[in-house]
Write a structure and sequence with these properties.
The chain is mainly β. It is built from 1 helix and 20 strands. The chain has one helix spanning 62-65; strands at residues 3-12, 16-27, 30-36, 39-45, 52-58, 67-73, 78-82, 85-89, 93-98, 107-111, 117-123, 126-131, 134-139, 146-152, 157-163, 166-171, 174-179, 184-189, 198-202, 205-209. The strands form 6 sheets. Strands 3-4-5-6 form a 4-stranded antiparallel beta sheet. Strands 7-8-9-10 form a 4-stranded antiparallel beta sheet, with no helix packed on it.
Amino acid sequence: MKYKLLILSFLISNCCFGQVNTVLDNLDSPIAFTFVDDDVYLALHGAVAQTGQIVKFNVSDPLSTYQVLFDSLTYPRAIIEKDNMLYIGLRDAIVTYDLSNPSEELDTILYNQFMFPRSFEFDGNDLVVALKKSLFRMDFSDSVVDIERLFGFDESPLSLARKNNELYIAVGTSIQKVDLTTNTISEVISDLEFVVYSILIVDNRLYLDQ
């Protein structure tokens, strides 16, 4: 089955008016993306089970700039950019890609069979990872990765979204919030009708994908 990649844009005044535009069509299942200026780096799940791609395109001309960077990866799920470095969560590893050296290959910075990170956000130089039924903080500044478990959940957290010093987490049918300054957690929304698969914060609004 092929999928569309859509951009949902909002014009906000006294009311919200939504407009949906098709950016790319006939894609394998898009699962996560990150912006670097006007370029989009997109993780796709492949047609073959447990495979996927990392692709790139420019929002001003998606069709002519579409490029497959990596193919036949093991089920990419999470992707984020920081300091011109792309962090990609695979089923069993976290790898990086140096955008300033496009000829370079992926570099594995953490490997653990069946780790399967679901979503990334940064807190300073630390990578916050939704993993299994927990939220972890990972420090990659030394050769040995320092991993700190922050919180555990009854279900696997599937998506993270950050606003200032607050980190919102989609867990089952609830949205929880972590204050990154005090490392305290609270529930924002509970008992939604369906599981929340993805969240996004735009202009002080939290958008949910169920």
